[in-house]
Automatic annotation (TrEMBL), chains A, B:
Enzyme Commission code(s) on record: 3.1.3.5
Principal subcellular localization: cytoplasm
Domain Survival protein SurE-like phosphatase/nucleotidase: 8-192
Protein name according to UniProt: 5'-nucleotidase SurE
Subcellular location: Cytoplasm
Family: Belongs to the SurE nucleotidase family.
Cofactor note: Binds 1 divalent metal cation per subunit.
Binding residues annotated for a divalent metal cation, in chain numbering: D13, D14, S44, N101
Stored InterPro entries: SurE, SurE-like_Pase/nucleotidase, SurE-like_sf
Species annotation: Prevotella scopos JCM 17725
Assigned GO CC terms: cytoplasm
Encoding gene (name): surE
Length: 257, 257
């Protein structure tokens, strides 16, 4: 790979065989070299988790046209780390992408998302990084209508880069026609009724994680929840430095406790 | 549990049998009711991951004096969710604690840490939450010398609470005598050389995640890296809202692309 095209590393949390990652690759191969390193199977909700104890395997795959594909037994973050260390040895990627995720990662889902984990990992390696997610949870959804916005955002970031320590959380509403693009903050929301208790045929209790999302700012019009509900593509610049500087200043009094 | 003592829920990412969690409980039971719900075994590096697909089991344990102990087959975040939904049905905790972790969670480790995952989860449930971690990686280290600072910080938060959407990342240096307490930002650092490739006896390659931490701000004196290296206990207020508002303002021009 000594082309003059930019090099894009792509991972996801739905697995290397998912529809979303194949669609994302298809949007980019005419102007970029693309390498995929993605989990063997679904790793939704894996956040920034990486494999501290387990060993990892990499396998070359051939399921997506026009790009090099690897699957990894680990988490989305493992995929990025392994790709940078073992696959892209001679050439650092110009951009790292997560997605397209089947399911949105707006609001507090930012924290649970393996797709965002990929973007955070790239960002911690000082490489411009973007997570793409769709509000359409159907794993077989036709996502080809996201093409124009994905290409626009990718090309913009390849041209302008991103500030140090900031990656993008991009979410697409499930609509016939987009209302436009909104650069907006993440909204406040909560997952409620998150556990479904069941009885095993052998008599013991077991539990599934589930949940119902509650918008905790139903009147706000400046966050990703409002924008997605009104048909906008949302772009939320998300920070690695999670320090709350305002609170830090106020808490300085603790130093003399 | 109808006592007038505050109720503290504790989890960790080293497992319910770890030394750190037992030590933390022992610091608190004279003034608080304590319930532990922690992973069956080590879940280091699990970040905010939760179990989207796998079922979970809870087991009552009896290994820590003066408190109710449960082990869970899932992640640290699963432990918090299950405890709130299934164990603490009649009484919401006044405080959620993660730790004491065997290994520090300063700098970018904030993002990978299961101990911080516990604090973020509590914070997303609008419950004051603190992660405690020690720079001593020895799982058998005597952590009893952290008692005074842990009690001071816990009592301060029980009295004053914490602002909405902010939890505390507290790290202890491994020193004979603490220099004091610093409320400080997270430092910038990177993990490098993160993969060790090995050859399996059956001929294929496999990989371990490892890594060497590099301080990317060696001259800074206002971050957790400096403070820990100089013997201070560090307190970093960490935010749920990861939106970068400065970058957001600048990126508003994207809306007319």
């Amino acid at each position: 790979m000594n082309s003059k095209k930019p090099l894009i590393l792509i991972s996801n949390d739905d697995g290397y065989q998912s529809n979303g990652i194949r669609t994302l690759v298809s949007f980019l191969t005419d102007f970029a070299d693309v390498v995929v390193c993605a989990p063997e199977a679904g790793r939704s909700g894996f956040s920034c988790a990486f494999s501290v104890v387990d060993y990892l395997l990499l396998k070359k795959r051939h399921n997506i046209p026009d790009c090099e594909v690897w699957s990894c037994t680990g988490t989305p973050v493992d995929c990025v780390k392994l790709a940078l260390d073992q696959i892209l040895v001679d050439r650092k990627p110009d951009l790292i992408l997560g997605g397209i995720n089947h399911g949105d990662n707006s609001s507090v889902n930012n924290h649970y998302s393996g797709t965002m984990g990929i973007a955070y990992e790239g960002c911690m390696k000082y490489i411009p990084s973007i997570a793409f997610s769709s509000c359409d949870y159907d794993p077989n959804a036709d996502l080809s209508y996201l093409r124009d916005y994905v290409r626009l955002i990718v090309k913009k970031v390849l041209t302008d880069s991103l500030p140090k320590g900031v990656c993008l959380n991009v979410n697409f509403p499930k609509v016939e026609k987009f209302a436009g693009l909104k650069v907006c903050r993440m909204g406040w929301g909560s997952w409620t009724r998150e556990v479904e208790a069941c009885k095993h045929p052998r008599g013991f209790d077991y539990y599934w994680m589930t949940g119902h999302y509650r918008n905790d700012e139903p009147d706000a019009t400046d966050n990703d929840q409002w924008a997605l509900a009104h048909g906008y593509v949302t772009v939320t610049p998300s920070k690695i430095d999670v320090t709350d500087y305002e609170v830090l200043d106020k808490m300085k009094t603790w130093e003399s406790l």
